[in-house]
Amino acid sequence: MSPRQSTTATRHFKSEKFDFSSFFFSGLTGLATLLILAILAVILLNIIINGWSGLSWHFVSTIPKKDFFDIHTTGVLPMIVGTSIRVIVMTVFVIPVGVVTAIYLTEYAPNTSLITRTIRAAVNNLAGVPSIVFGLFGVGFFINFIGKNVDRALHNSGPVWGQPALIWASMTLAVMTLPVVIVATEESLKAIPPGLREASLALGATKLETIWRIVLPQALPGILTGGILAVSRAAGEVAPILFTGVAYYTSSLPTKLTDQFMDLGYHIFVLSTQSPNIDQTRPILYATVLVLLMLTFALNIVAIVIRARVRKKMRALG
Amino acid sequence: MGIHRGHTARPWEWIVEKSIFLISLSAILMVLLIFLFVAKEALPVFFGEINTALIQKPIPPAEMEKHSPVELQSYLELTPAQFASMSKDTLRSLMEVKVEAQDDIPEDFRKDPDARINTTEWRYLLFAHQWSDYNKPSYIWQPVGQIQKFNIVPLVIGTLKTTIIGLLFAVPLAVGAAIYVSQMARPRVREVVKPTIELLSGIPSVVVGFFALLIMATVLQHIFHYQTRLNAFVAGIALGIAVIPVIFSISEDALTSVPRAYSQAALALGASRWQTAWQIVLPAALPGVFAASVLGFGRAIGETMIVLMVCSGSVVSWSIFDSARSITTTIAAEMAEAVDGGPHYRILFMLGALLFAATFISNMVGEIVIHRFKRKLEGKR
Fold first, then answer.
1. How do the domains of chain A map onto residue ranges?
2. Which residues of chain A lie closer than 8 angstroms to B13, CB-CB?
3. A179: distance to nearest CA of chain B, Å?
4. A57-317 topology per CATH
5. ipTM computed for the complex
6. How far is CA B150 from CA A243, B124, B345, in A?
7. Which pLDDT value is given to residue A16?
């Protein structure tokens, strides 16, 4: 076959089979993709462009007076601190429980037993419970049940634990983000080649020693990813903390677990719905939104990078 | 030394392994606790134990002995714990206060038939009622004032309205993008686009709400020329933006998990790329796409901050350009002002329990469909 013949053959093939419906369909679905990307871009660009000018060192390091709608004296330090502390306290509760559950599910659980399936169903359901229902649960269980009973046991004269507080907000968020940690940890545990475990067991280590010395160190980046994803999810959530600990205004930073706190997400809600003059509040609002987005996106990107590295390493190992 | 087996060999490890098992049950425990404690606060509504009627037949303190403790407790609106902790004298003085309160009701209210109604009965919660200052039977949610009205129909309509608009917007876009990314796009495009769309789920809902309130509401009003600036339509579109990543990533998973042999066979038989995607891959992945939409529905129905920020009037209207108030919004906005243990508080928990049940069911349906779909693709029945 001469080269000339082959080119005519291809050309012939292409021209006869120009496929309008494929072209149209690709275009249509591609347009949907583009539209989603455009929405994302518009939201992010709009916030970055408008928020950037309001951002300053003064803004992120000032504790505002009660009237925080004034651009010159306002700041978001208590909100940054409040949001950070509530997610840090949350990780103390959620990471151990989530990691242990994932260890049970991947290392111990018989795959088809009723109890395993029930745990998995519970994790999936927990992931789908509306965030406001977690808020109600926080009131009903943590504040009204646990908190009030602690007060009674300690013979406190007024409510100390039986009222909205940092610890209850954090624990409510911990329940909410439990599935995130479990799923991420499980994924990283599954990615560890079984050969490593078998080698350790063959050398005489017990199952628990294998998990503690071999499996967990390998899974550490994955566990970290799970923690970061949980933190970034929780940092932006407002509904679960509405009645479990957030305050419209506090004059000082939270110092005890029973204090109430101010929060970035809630502050955005307050600024955008309760401002006396929305045009004057707009720059503060944009700057606050930008701070929250930077916080959650930075966490998300760190998680994505760690995850990508782990996957690469696992591919090299496996 | 012989070989020991079971917990006698290494008691310490046996204990640790058992505790691992126990801790892993905490997810189940939490689901149960959520159900238990949300339902517990709402139980008096389900059993009709609350009486919000303004005018009640007073029980004279002298007749205290004639009534059972349970009757007295509900009459005095106390919790069992409060009731148990009170002495007989305290109860007696409470009953006197109650009688005095009944005597203090102004004459106007005595003539109002509504003042004798217990508004937490199911027929007032679910059906229209002609209140004395209205000229026709209507569905009213009005938890403040002398006569509290708790009809949940406006809230259910508001929730469905915003959710359905959200899904009508999100499902075609998200599924279209999933088809494009999994079937049409080149691998390099795919590797960029997929994580970018998933980044959308990293935007907190309060930020989506803020954006809808400040920017989208104005832009959409300019395009569609409707009256009310903040309405169910804007809230629905914003909800759609929030659920797009959920629907996208689950449908994309479903489409990619269709075995390559299916599409390769179709292409080898001379089908075009579009025929392969539309007639082979999409039908095979349809259960997964359906499940994605159901899970998106569950997410949208439970979304709070967006609807709370964008619209919150309680009108009964199916028009999408009217305001709407969803169940989640109502709970978020009114929980702070509801008295602990009062009728309003209990009704809000009842709404929470309904919401929990709705999302529980939609999650179960979604999970079961996905599970079946995976088994079918693996060739098991």
1. 3-51, 57-317
2. 206-208
3. 8
4. MetI-like fold (1.10.3720)
5. 0.87
6. 21, 7, 11
7. 53
DSSP 8-class letter at A68: T
Q: What is the DSSP letter of B154?
A: H
Q: Among B38, B210, B309, whose Cβ lies nearest the Cβ of A140?
A: B38
pLDDT in tens, B25-69: 999 999 999 999 998 888 888 887 777 776 666 677 777 777 777
pTM: 0.86
Number of structural domains (chain B) is: 2
User: B184 lies in which domain range?
Assistant: 153-377
On the 0-12 / 13-18 / 19+ scale of CB atoms within 10 A, B318 is: exposed
Residues within 8 A of B (CB atoms), A 3-42 only:
17, 19, 21-22, 24-26, 28-33, 35-37, 39-40
Output the domain CATH number for residue B273.
1.10.3720.10
The size of the A-B interface in CB pairs under 8 A is 258
pLDDT in tens, B162-178: 999 999 999 999 999 99
In a domain, B165, yes or no: yes
The one-letter amino acid code at B295 reads L
Widest Cα–Cα separation across chain B: 93
What are the structure tokens assigned to B185, written together?
């796009």
The separation between the first and the last C-alpha atoms of chain A, rounded to the nearest angstrom, is 45
Residue from B184, B126, B118, B200 nearest B156 by CA: B126
Question: Does some domain include residue B361?
Answer: yes
CB-nearest to A101 from B27, B183, B195 is B27
**Is there a contact between B336 and A32 if contact means CB atoms under 8 Å apart?**
no
Q: Does A49 touch chain B (CB under 8 A)?
A: no
- How many Cβ atoms sit within 10 Å of the Cβ of residue B69? 11
CB within 8 Å: A35 and B173: yes
Say yes or no for a CB contact (<8 Å) between B200 and A40.
Answer: yes
Structure tokens at A192: 């560890």
